[in-house]
Fold:
Amino acid sequence: MIRINCPFCGERDHSEFSYGGDASIEYPALDAPPEQWHDAVFMRENIRGMQSETWHHASGCRMWLVVERDTLTHEIQAVRPAHPAIAQALEDEA
Amino acid sequence: MSAKRLAQGGRIDRSQPISFKWDGMTLQGFQGDTLASALLANNEHVLGRSFKYHRPRGIMSAGVEESGALVTIGSGARRDPNVKATLQELYPDLEAFGQNAWPNVRRDVGALSGLFGRFFAAGFYYKTFMGLPPFEWGKGTGLWMQYEKIIRKAAGMGTASREPDPDVYDHAHAFCDVLVVGGGVAGMAAAATAAQAGLDVILVEQDHELGGDTLSQTGAGAAQRSELLSTLAASGAKVMCRTTAFGLYDYGTAGLLERVTDHLPLQALSSHTPRQRFWTVRAQHTLLATGALERHIAFGNNDKPGIMTAAAGRSYLNRYGVLPGEKVVVATNNDSAYQVAADLQQAGAEVTLLDARAAVSGAVCDAVAGIETRMGCVPMQAKGQHALQGLQLASGTPGNWTAGDTTIADLLLVSGGWSPVVNLISHRGVRPVWNAELACFVAPAVNEPVDMVGAAAGIWDTAACIDSGLRAAEAVIQRLRPTSTQQSAPSTEPVTPQSPAHEHGWENPILPLYEVKVAGKKLKCFVDPQHDVTTDDIRLAHQEGFVSVEHLKRYTTLGMATDGGKMGNIIGLALMAEALGKDIPEVGTTTFRPPYTPVSIGALKGRNVDEHFRCLRRTALHEWNLRHGATMAPAGLWERPWYFARAGETIKEAYEREAATVRQTVGLCDVTSLGKIAIQGPDATELLNRVYTNPFAKLPIGKARYGIMLRDDGFVMDDGTTWRLSETDYFMTTTTAHAAKVMVFLEELLQTRWPELKVTLTSVSEQWAGCAVAGPKSRETLAACMADPEQISDANFPFMGVRDITLHGGIPARIARISFSGERAFEAYVPSDYAEQMMDQLWQAAQRFDGCLYGLEALGALRIEKGHVTGAELDGRVSIDDAGLGMMASPKKAFIGSALRQRPELLRADRPQLVGIFPKNRAETFNAGSILCHADKIEGLGAGWVTAVTYSPALGHWIGLGFFEGGHQGQEGKTFISADPVRKGNVEVELVSPHMYDASGERMRG
Ligand SMILES: [Zn+2]
Structure:
């Protein structure tokens, strides 16, 4: 029953969103060696506490968001667009 | 036990008699009765049988904690088992039945003493099943089945109806500033105060009336209730009775179950009124005024009908006008039962009060003046055939009781202390903490806007509870409306705080007492009366090494019955603590989980049944297909034509004819459900080149290309064609099944990984309707629908070409010359509004060439003949090489999945690879889903599997696709086995190239 404050749509129930994954993962270049891709795709932390994670507002604005969520309490500290330029634009506006 | 209805008193309406049926007998009650109070008024004691030992069970409480009076309500499709008689409101012609007994609860053959006793000691299930087969594969199934028969017969509660549920249920949502759970005095005071300050308040109460404990009080309590009722009514708070908050979730979300019609006779129901409503409420602040439940004490035969909580006795007397017994013993270890004794004595019962404590003083003593009171005295063993007839007492101090005399009694009221209802707060992941002074668990502070008030916070006195509600509401107002506290001040003046000693409402401290154990006496003392868990079971569990309460619970099944351990859990914990030589806080408590009280499956599903269970997506051609004789089949949420049977045709005859017609002349197939994505922008080409395995950088404008996408991990995600409409504009088609997944993935890539790419994505799946026109006469068929047939000559419209062509009537069509069937073929898309017009034209033209409409079954036959893969093959575990499409993976560029598809495991030459399959005997068939085995090794997982099978009209026999270790190369002529042990058995097959028909692809060109 998490509620996520979408920067574009406002606060919505989590049922409108779908969970993506760990937002801190930096995907290697497409032509990077398999070892780097292996680490990015498979070697994930199972974080207990604050985690940066991606959520997709699938039944809303279709934007991918980065949500700072405590995996233990579900407390959400921040939500921003995953697209860095859009996030910057919103910040500049604010 | 001889209970009787009193001539006056109580909240029942004696002017409205109600007749109802109990196990076939017609009995009388009154409006305002529960089934339990009405049965008690009729002097019915044995209302149920226990789960394991079939011991008689009577009424043990007057509320949700009921663990004895579980009955079945209604019959036929509306049969509802395990209903607590203490909660079921009486209505005219209500039908109730005893359960878990034969022939009835009063004379139960299953109860023949000791018949089941040996079977069901603690850990019975574990000892029987965990140490023994069938948990060792292949052994002992017979033994298990023997046990299982006995258990099924002996253990169990009511049985549910097997008919479809005739009632409707609703889901509803609400928002509020303050949700107050519990309509006792604390909850009423809190709700009224918050609402007066202008807050939006919802007050929920599981009972059908507000008042909580004051409903069972006379005098001052009743007066306080009336006063609070009128304040609440004027406050504007929304009150929901017959509504249980069964769970508390994140972000102030509560789950409520509203019982809308469970108290009404059948004839009063309308088909539009839901039986129950499942509410999701989101509140800024939640106040839990959930009260407290009185505990039992474990002593000999403490499960006998005629033994109930002290508060229940008072409730039946003062609320329902029933004198529950004539010769009443009240046994307590705290002050609360004193008033109960006084009320019963005044109502005409002969009362003896036992107090485990050595001495008490103060006003409580005045209340019981004239009542025989025995201090330092407890019940040791209940006597009586079925119901209580007498009671042997013990005296002394806890841990040192000595057997005493036996007294006659037809009712024993027990108070072993009170347990605040901390279930909901525990749902928030916090552990209740033990308060030794009050001998109960109370809620810890939580880091959420949820507060406990009243008895739920361990406050026992009525006035103090009201005060607690007021103060909590004040704090909420302060938090949510910092400026409005001023104006609300007059109505919320706090009650004068009481002295700390009396803060919780008891003059004398409670004496913790959980079990009456007397040296040398072997007593059967029940902890969980519903699951027949005894004090000896707990000690046995400890002896056998179970030290964690969570393990104890599962081993003994303590607290796992429908009451969720509301009555017995604390006794169980205390005994475990004693056995371990620890304190209760060290032992801790088990985790409370939702729901607080049972929630029907019907309420969970709401209106989502039958065709509403999942929505049906209708393509723009859905109705057209039905009008033209389609039998439809589900394809995700869509329905697609499965086959178009002519009069008298079977499905097999229909699809064989359709597939053959496509190869001979022309067929039309609705492909509208395919996913379609508009990909636009200066970097659209770059995006496609990165996500597809094959090159897209040089796809000419006006051309389409088949493409495969992998996942990051190197496995195939989806396939489809992408059409280049202009320099910056592409039209991508995906499979029906993966349309949404592909869209989400592309959005993720553009927004999170490659934000520098200037591309927009638009799902246009529903904007375009599509039809595949396939077969040697496909060009002629399409040509008949346009002004200038030259537009689609081979020269003007080559294989894989894309053209915008206007069809007759000015229909703008987007057509690609692509083929899934292997024949010369086109896919024509038009804006959805033109769908039927396009089909009418195409169908008229196709009929001139003796063409047909074809569905998924023929589509499947055609693609299997060609060895084209679909979702049956691309199941997420298949690499591009496994699918025989390795040549589609460009070695010259990097793309999504290109790194990890190089993992050694995915490059192994003996991985299962796509193969074609022929039956050795061409007249035979075999099944999709079979395991492919070497002929001399038909065992285990085999060496491959069959994904699809069809009759091939082109080849004249059954064929299949599948995967086999190492593929078909070098296996020609060898015999393999398609093993299908549970259906068809073994069929000899041979492996061939998956391209079983027109391998060179001649037919689709030219
Ligand atoms: Zn949004």
Observations:
- The longest helix of chain B spans residues 462-480.
